[in-house]
Each structure stands twice: as C-alpha cells, then as structure tokens.
C-alpha cells in the first residue's frame, strides 16, 4: 500500500485555522447536512438526513448485487438481495451522527469536511439482524475481526482503498448490528448505501458501512485504511490514538424564530416561545436531562419519550423572550452522567466534538419583523 | 420595509476573494449539491438533487394547506390539496439549476452560497398546468403581474419578507408553468416545497417558488425583495441590472475514474474510458453539440436523445487515457448557437456562471491504483 506520489493529498496541510479552503467548501457543497428546523420531527425527512460519503456513490444494479461471507468461515456463502429481503425483517429508528460533526469548531481545525452542527439525523431503518447471518457462516475459533467492505473506492492520503471497517467478535456480540435495505418505508437511496448497508446503532456513522459487498472473517486484526489510519482520537502526530466508537452525548436546538438568509442568526418577537430540540447519546444510553441557557441562566427542559433505544429524545422549554441579542445554548447529560462540554474538546482530526451548540437570536418588536407587504 | 438595524447583514461584505468565510461554509453545509457521479442517470436520485432554500423549510400540514388566488381577479378562489390533486395531472422531467451555480468561480466572489458546479438536477415532476387555474380566476384587464408567495419567511439584507416571485401575463402565456405536488413518483418532500410548489421550466430555480400559498393578480408591477432586489445581473453597484430568467447553456462531466476524498481529483488507468455527462440550455432550447477537451484537443461528443424538452441531454465520448495529469473540460452549444465561455462571466452576485467545468484527472499505471489489500 504505497502512497501515490501524484496525490495532491501528500502535500495537503494537516490543520488550518479561521478561513476555509476551496477544497473544504467543495466537500461541504457535496456532502449535505441536516436542516436544523427539522429537529422538531421525530424522524428526519428523507433527503434531509446528513450525508457523508468519502468516495463516489456507486450506482449498483441490485439484481446483480451479492453479499458474500468470506475468509475464515467454515460455511462461507453469499446472498442475493431477494434472499436478503426474505429474512426476518425489523424496522428500527436510529440516530446516526458523523464522527466529524463539529469539526469546524475545533481549533486548529483538521483539513476535511468542515461540519458545524448538522451531521446528524434519524431514520427508520428496515433490515435484518446481522449476528445470525454471521453465525450461519460458522466463524472459525481464531477469528479476531469481521471486516465489512463497501463498493466505494478511492484515495485518501495517497492510498487507494475500498471503504472498509471492522468489528471484533465481542463488539459484534454486544451491538445490535443490522443489515439494512430500507429507509423511512422506502427502498434505500443510492447515496445512503443502496442496495445494502450496515447500521451499527449507537456508534458514529463511519461504522455503518454503505454499499456492503463482503463480510470477511479474519484471523488477524483488520488493517484497512478507514479502520487504522483514521477515525482515531489523537492529541498529536506521535499519538497512536484510540479508536472512535460510540457517539458522545449531545443536543441541538431547532433554531427558534426566522433566519437571516446568510448568517442564519434568528429573529423573533418578544413573549413566550417554546424552544425545542433533540438530545442523544451513544451505545443505547438514555438521556437523563437537557438544560437550556437563556439570559435568565440554565434551566431544565422537559424531555419527551425517546423515539427509540438508539434514537434521539425530544425536549422543550418555554422561554419568555425579551428584546435584545441573546445567545441560547443547550446541554444534555446521559444516564451514565456524561455531559456536554461548553468548549470543543481538541482532537487532531476534529472527531466527536460534542460541545454545546450556540444559537444567536435577536428579539425585536413586531414592527421590525413584520411580514413584507 | 425598513432595514433592521440589528441585522448582521447590514455590515456584511459585498464580495470576497480566495478563501471562504464561516458563513459561506455554513450555507454550503446546509444547502446540498448534486453528486456529480449521478450525472450518468437521466433522473437525479431523490435526495441527491440540489437544494437551495433561503429561509427555513416550513413543515406544513397538507390537510390544512390552501392555495388562494387573490387580488385583481374577478373570480378569486382557493383550493385544498385534495382539490388540486384531482385536477388534470401531468408528469414532466425538468432540469432545474440554481441561478447561483458557479458563484465560487466568479472573481471577485459575491458573499452568498458558494456553489461550484453542483447546483443542478433533473426530476420527474408531477402536477397540473397553472395557466388554466389562473384563467378560471378571471384576471382583470389591467393586471401587470402575477405574484407567487411561499410560506418561507426570513431576512435578507435586513429586510423581512416571505419568499416571493412574479411573472407577467406575457411570461405566463409563454412558459409551461406547473403546480407541482409530486417528485419522482413520490409525494413532494418538505425541503423541495411540500405540499405544493411551482416549476417554471427553462428558468433558473428562483422562479420555481416552493411552499406556494398564494397567487395574487397585481395591477402594478410586483416589488417583492426576491424579484427586484436580487436575481438581477449587475456589473457594479450603480447598475440597475437585468432580471435573471432563462437558464444559460451549460454542460457537466460525470467525473471519470475514482476520487481523492478531499481534493476530488480523479484517478484512472490508461486505456479507453468513456467520458459521460449532461448538457442543457434554458427556455426549451435543445442542445446542438457538446465538445470535450482532452490532451488531444477538443472533440465532438455523441449526444443521446434529450430526456425531455426541458430536461438535460446525455453525451459521451470515448477517450484513450494516457499517463499523466490532465485537465478535461466539456462545452455545450445550444440550437440557437449560444455556447459556454471558457472563463467565468463576471456578475456582481455571481449569477449564471456557465463557464466550462474543468476536471483534473491523474492517469497512472494499474499498480498505483490497485485495490487496497
């Protein structure tokens, strides 16, 4: 796996600050974020869920698609899509978040997709549990990793590879991993991994491999690029790092009032406004509380019932908005007592920044925000 | 319509160069571009169509939604969504492009959504022709404009307004304007204007008002913000400008080979590669030719049948790729002889930049781009 000398990436800056480069903007134009106003809905509208794809979307003919179980299995096999859809079917709401969400708030900033708050979403995913299918292939006793390979292929840091990730047998036993072919009651869309993807509930999105073609049992540890060379928390260049796994506790507010088109700062009238949003944590851990900061200080929001074990929880709080410019914030704490930091935690790659969201609102008399006649 | 003194926009820069601001990146994260690899398909996959929304997406209960015909009509009326869906129904493939597509390539660059090439897409739109519905309301003889108002509301340059646009009676008679409630065989998605929007085929996207609530007949010219204060071609601050209307001739190439994740530069093996893409023009004008530039010079591509009168035309050309770094380009000419410029045309707001797309490809021996083992 020799780095390619032609790759522009071998010369790319590791981190950057302040203003953004054309390459970062190109990624932002291509990848798409949640529309924050849809946080009022339990399920993110189809097409408004965040999307982060490393390479090109493979446009796959599902009639030709096969999922193979290969490597250190005693009973390797493969399945067509028709065979997969005939398996026991479940539908599960799952909140997915990109490991890079919040990267643009970390300083210095890693040179990558410059997410702010919007790389999250919740869909109803339809598919079948993966564990019984792996058991059916009879993994050999000395298997150390199951490698999941997608059909998407390209270069990162000069290294060509298909997107791939792995889970150990222990991880697989502990997680409710699903093979997915449906999303919000419709066939999976190409850009979300059609015809077949993984969903690893409770983990950041990189684990939920799209366009899944092969599950391989390995008697050594998997060393794919996306497993060992990225998606690791590192403090500096010499830090071997720790793998990024479960989602950190986080919350977002659906921005109240109406926006300014460019700045997205908000405008609302004085008086009672119900602030609403969502909170979630990883690994199936429930949300214990959400606090909201207004000019009157931090107050505890009311929690709705969770949308599902692996899906976000709605929250709301009535606020008496008073004239002026204010910065609103929200902070979630999960059932294991983990809470969001006020300032972004540093990570070399800007992974898992779960610092509190800040929303700028301008509260003004109605005549300043009247409808255009 | 007094500019609001609190608005951050009153102080925003008019134009900028080189690096990008956080506000521009915020817009790029929120709005989403076409995935260029889907240019191989006649119809853009749902959710991969470009999206540009000025304000928040209104989440509308369609059971409560009404379209009203108001103002200088002799027989004003309103319709429920059930009544609208019972009207004569047509499905039409239409290519939509944002007027700001290509803005990031114009220098100096307007401070707004920094589109590069990706603000375009083609969907199958289902709805009913608008003209008979306006006729049924009996416009008075002195009507000068029909104003179309959406449910989306916010601020631009300190001025609060609902998104609105207008067409004159002559424009309405000349254009095949549709009232739309379906997209690609499914109900219209919230972010694309559900439950009801306009499609103005052949014009840039700003004319296709989403979340349509009211059509008003005016005996004066419409002076809404989005009609008179923006979407005008202007050379400088003192230029009163000309309105942005029909789409300019343009073409794009589906990037060949595989991408580098960050730079999106492409990698492919030497040998024959079929270059493919799309070309389109405005006002229903067909595409006459597409030329493709390779290291061997400009060559004429083969055109497919157009997808529809108002939809793009596929093209392809076989190229013998030779090792090295190359810049590929494509250039369309329409049936009225208009062709794409090589360099971006200047406009204050960066509207309608139809300069040729450039795609950087690295052609290397297979061992440099082998699949990661």
From TrEMBL, chains A, B:
- Superkingdom: Bacteria
The Oxidoreductase molybdopterin-binding domain covers which part of the protein? Answer: 54-225
What processes in GO biological process is this protein linked to?
Answer: sulfur compound metabolic process
Residue ranges constituting the Moybdenum cofactor oxidoreductase dimerisation domain according to the UniProt record: 247-363
This protein's cofactor list reads: Mo-molybdopterin
- GO MF annotations, alphabetized: heme binding; molybdenum ion binding; molybdopterin cofactor binding; sulfite oxidase activity
Q: Which UniProt keywords apply?
A: Metal-binding, Molybdenum, Oxidoreductase
Q: Which Pfam families match?
A: Mo-co_dimer, Oxidored_molyb
Q: Which InterPro entries match?
A: Ig_E-set, MoCF_OxRdtse_dimer, Mopterin_OxRdtase_euk, OxRdtase_Mopterin-bd_dom, OxRdtase_Mopterin-bd_sf
Annotated protein name in UniProt: Sulfite oxidase, putative
Q: Which organism is it from?
A: Roseovarius nubinhibens (strain ATCC BAA-591 / DSM 15170 / ISM)
């Amino acid at each position: 796996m020799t780095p390619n000398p032609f790759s522009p990436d071998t010369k790319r800056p590791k981190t950057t600050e302040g203003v953004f480069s054309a390459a970062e903007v190109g990624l932002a134009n291509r990848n798409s974020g949640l529309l924050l106003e849809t946080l009022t809905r339990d399920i993110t509208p189809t097409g408004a869920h965040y999307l982060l794809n490393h390479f090109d979307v493979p446009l796959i003919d599902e009639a030709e698609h096969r999922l193979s179980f290969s490597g250190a299995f005693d009973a390797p096999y493969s399945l067509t899509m028709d065979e997969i859809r005939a398996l026991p079917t479940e539908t599960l709401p799952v909140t997915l978040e990109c490991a890079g969400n919040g990267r643009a708030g970390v300083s210095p900033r890693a040179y990558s997709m410059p997410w702010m708050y919007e790389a999250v979403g919740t869909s109803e995913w339809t598919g079948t549990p993966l564990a019984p299918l792996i058991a059916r292939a009879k993994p050999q006793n000395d298997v150390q990793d199951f490698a999941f390979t997608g059909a998407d292929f390209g270069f990162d840091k000069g290294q060509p590879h298909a997107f791939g990730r792995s889970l150990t047998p222990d991880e697989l036993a502990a997680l409710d991993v699903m093979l997915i072919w449906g999303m919000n009651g419709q066939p999976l869309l190409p850009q979300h991994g059609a015809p077949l993807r993984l969903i690893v509930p409770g983990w950041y999105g990189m684990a939920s491999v799209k366009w899944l073609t092969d599950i391989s049992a390995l008697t050594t540890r998997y060393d794919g690029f996306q497993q060992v060379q990225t998606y690791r928390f590192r403090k500096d260049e010499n830090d071997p790092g720790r793998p990024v796994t479960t989602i950190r506790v986080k919350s977002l507010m659906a921005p109240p009032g109406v926006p300014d088109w460019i700045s997205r700062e908000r405008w609302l009238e004085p008086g009672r406004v119900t602030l609403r949003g969502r909170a979630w944590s990883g690994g199936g851990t429930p949300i214990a509380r959400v606090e909201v900061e207004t000019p009157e200080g931090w107050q505890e929001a009311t929690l709705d019932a969770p949308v599902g074990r692996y899906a976000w929880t709605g929250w709301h709080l009535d606020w008496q908005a008073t004239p002026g410019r204010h910065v609103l914030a929200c902070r979630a704490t999960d059932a294991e007592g983990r809470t969001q930091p006020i300032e972004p935690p540093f990570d070399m790659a800007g992974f898992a920044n779960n610092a509190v969201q800040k929303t700028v609102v301008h509260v003004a008399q109605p005549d300043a925000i009247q409808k255009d006649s």
